[in-house]
Amino acid sequence: MKKNKTIKTTTLQGRFEKLHLAANYAEECAQAIAFHANRLCVADQSAPQAAAYMQMTEDINNWCDKFAQLASSMQSVEEKYYAHLQNNNTECELIEEVPSYKKHGYAVPDSFSVDDMLFEIGYHELEGDPYLVAEHDFSEPEIVNDIQVLMENMIRYVKALANADYNGIWKPVGDLAIEIHDTIPTQSIDNLLVAYGYDKTFRLCIEF
């Protein structure tokens, strides 16, 4: 009888974590865009600018709702693996290959640099405010540039997540990842930047 393939539990968890990292950071980058763009909402904001901001935040919020579904679907699949733990839980039967975006050459942004930016704009806070966010007067060009960088990171995370191989029990997760990719709210973000007079000079292709 052929022995089923096993994998170290720590290795398995690491592969799960890579998928969660891509999803979590994609969502955080989107939410950080809405957070940072709120600084553009000043007293002399025009009606088109206000409308573009409201539409963008609504689209981002609706898009981010999909990540909760994705996390739930991932957890459901992962539980199937943990039901097959062996050797004092140090190994697990590899019931299906865990999807990997690196297999097709996709890479995600460096998490340390993304975290650093999220702290710099105040989306995440640290005790004592070492980034001096409270004292920083964010200029409009600075905010726009930050939004563009966050959008680049967001797209890269989503592209990686959507281009992994989701076979067998992973197919429902893959379907959600592709739906997230296909509904990424770049147009609404572009519209906001255009409303503030900035051309769409910054764009990564999000086609497969």
SSE layout and pairing:
Layout: E1 6-8, H1 9-37, H2 47-82, E2 85-86, E3 91-93, H3 111-120, H4 140-162, H5 171-182, H6 186-195
Antiparallel strand pairs: 1-3, 2-3
Cα(first) to Cα(last) distance is 41 Å
Radius of gyration: 20 Å
Walk across the major sheet and give the strand order. Answer: 1-3-2
Shape, principal axes of CA atoms:
elongated
In the predicted model, the low-confidence regions spanning at least 5 consecutive residues are 204-208
Number of strands: 3
CATH-derived architecture:
Up-down Bundle
CATH topology: Ferritin
Could you provide a short overview of the structure?
With 208 residues, the chain is mostly helical. The protein has a single domain, classed as Ferritin. It has helices at residues 9-37, 47-82, 111-120, 140-162, 171-182, 186-195, and strands at 6-8, 85-86, 91-93.
Structure description:
With 208 residues, the chain is mainly alpha-helical. It has one domain: Ferritin (Up-down Bundle), CATH 1.20.1260. Helices cover 58% and strands 4% of the residues. The protein is built from six helices and three strands, in the order E-H-H-E-E-H-H-H-H. It has helices spanning 9-37, 47-82, 111-120, 140-162, 171-182, 186-195; strands at residues 6-8, 85-86, 91-93. Strands 1-3-2 form a three-stranded antiparallel sheet. Helix 1 (9-37) packs antiparallel against helix 2 (47-82). The longest helix is centred in the N-terminal third of the chain and has 36 residues, at 47-82.
